[in-house]
Amino acid sequence: LGVLFMAQSFSGGGHGGRAGIALSQIPPVGDVLRWTGDRREASALQAHALDDLLKLLLGAGWVVMASALVTIISRAAGQSALRRGDAAVRRAVGASRSSLRFSLQFEVGVIASLILVVGLAIGLVATRAGVASWPGTGSSAFAPRVAVLLIALVVVMGLVLLLGANLRENIAHQEEGQVPLGLPAGQLGFGFAIVVGGSLVLGRATQIAGSTDSARASGSVISLEVADSAARNRSERYGVLLDSLSRYESVATASLTSAGAPSGLGVVDLVTTDCGQCSDGTIILRYHSFAGLHEFVSPDTFKSQGFRVVEGRNFTPSDDWVAPRVAIVSRHLAYRHFEAGDAIGRDIFVASGWPARPYKVIGIVDDHPSSALGGSGLPSSTVYLSVLQHPPVATELVIRPARGGPAPDLDGLFSRILGASSTRGPAITESELLRRNAAPVRWLALWFGIAGWVMLGIAAAGTFAMLHLWVRSRSAELAVRRAVGATRGRILFFVITRTMVVAVGGIGMGLFLFTSIVRPSIADLFADLPAWDAGLVLRLSLLLAVTALAGSLLPTWRILRASPAVSSLP
Questions:
Q1: Residue range 272-286: average pLDDT?
Q2: Would you say the pTM of this structure is higher than 0.85?
Q3: Under a CB-based contact definition with an 8 Å cutoff, are residues 55 and 445 in contact?
Q4: Measuring CA to CA, how many Å separate 314 from each of 231, 349, 361, 541?
Q5: Left, alpha or beta for 335 (phi > 0: left; psi -120 to 50: alpha)?
């Protein structure tokens, strides 16, 4: 209940909820191009990725709740058999059916109330801790309709418990004396899949945060905003700023890009290429349209980020406001959307520019997937445009230092070149930028892992209880086997083989759920996601097998130590 409340609160309690978490906004690029109505800004792309991950977390919460209900109902049904004798004695000494029913209802009500209080308390504490540690914006306001939903769930659970306790033929005493062992196998499978999925997300976050090598993490990142309404004026100011910084011996590179571009984020909108002869099925087309990522960069950006120009040339300071419009494309775009990959010198149209506003392709660079949250959901095809030809209001300046020479007076440069209407954010290191990219992923991995381990704990407890009930339900059969000459070793072998079927079935179901549902859902949101953690899979498999064996061997050993006559008693 606490895990479900936490997951509901993180996601805002559903659509339009009053609580929830969000990422810090990336400033929009603005009207530097004539965008179509289908454009998606970087913040919208990240918000969509976060929403998908929170839906996964919420789904994990519902699975945890369902698994807990199965465990509680199974145990209650099994325990009800032990209370039949007590109920019969109380009836024999004069207790009425109504008093017995009231006693049972009162007990269930007390248990449900305790579950509600403890569950909501845990959920509130976890929600506030999660929101406090979230590296974006969030609110831990109490969501009334979430509480109503969970109260309804507790009431339903209480009613089911009541009905389960009154069943004449319960789960441990069916006509064939069998306990449905598919239930613990299913619980183990869901818990296994969630824990392995959480470990993959955490591993990817660690890779992102750990990629702070000297080639990518030695510079400083400064957010700039120039409120000048004239795009041509901004272009000129940006050109003067980059030229001034390039004159300092202490500056190796000075890259000015649209907001989010250092993290590989941009605007997704329509791209049309003068392909030559491209096939769409059996149709040959000259112009090929698709969704592409748009980033606005300066001449030093590719060198700063370690991108290799594999063909053609890079942007130069002369690719400014008055120059002919040019573009650089990613390798995937060139080879996928130009005939024979021959993109250099051909026309490309961005946003709503087809067919009147062509850009000439002057270069091709290697593909570089974004490491930020939602990066793997971006199109594989990227168009790079000159920030001097399309100057956004909000930009990010990345300065990588070189040895020797005095450091530039950034405050003086910004004030003199960009003007009093400009604002700047605090400088951060590139390594800090990478850590910020990894922080939401780490956070989600942590809470996804918490949900998975809670689920696995519930599944282990449920497996232990269900196999205990299964052995007890087979006590008469085991006693008969002993009476007709079966040795203790053969009976142990009989129990162990069926127990391992449950464990192996649960692990197999977990691997199936992980590979078919959990990993594909996560892979849509993170680039370069590893296949799985083989060490974790092995450790979890051993843990689940030992739990299952303990649940079945303990009652089996008691049965084997008693005489067959005693073992056959219900």
A1: 80
A2: no
A3: no
A4: 23, 19, 11, 52
A5: alpha
